[in-house]
Specification:
The chain is an all-alpha fold. About 75% of the residues lie in helices and about 0% in strands. The N and C termini lie far apart (about 60 Å).
């Protein structure tokens, strides 16, 4: 897996979210540099955990659909009458 990266706009929005969170929940101002550093750290440390969870959820969804398709295909099978001599 490659590193998780964000566009400039995404990173700016995430930095602002961190700054807003720190101010409203911790009553602490977080500068842009500190917020970017925190975002980079969280992305590196926690990003793979969330990424893998997303893959796991996606895999489960695909497997569920494959099971449904298999059931539908078995339902289409025709009964074969075999003549015995």
């Amino acid at each position: 897996m490659s590193d998780i990266t964000f566009s400039k706009e995404e990173k700016l929005g995430l930095v602002e979210m961190l700054q807003t969170y720190f101010l409203s929940e911790m009553d602490q101002e977080l500068g842009r540099f500190e917020a970017e550093f925190l975002l980079d750290h969280l992305s590196k440390q926690l990003g793979p955990v969330f990424y893998n969870k997303g893959l796991l959820d996606g895999r489960a969804l695909i497997e569920k659909h494959i099971d449904n398709y298999n059931e539908a295909l078995y339902g289409l099978e025709k009964e074969i009458d075999v003549l015995h001599r």
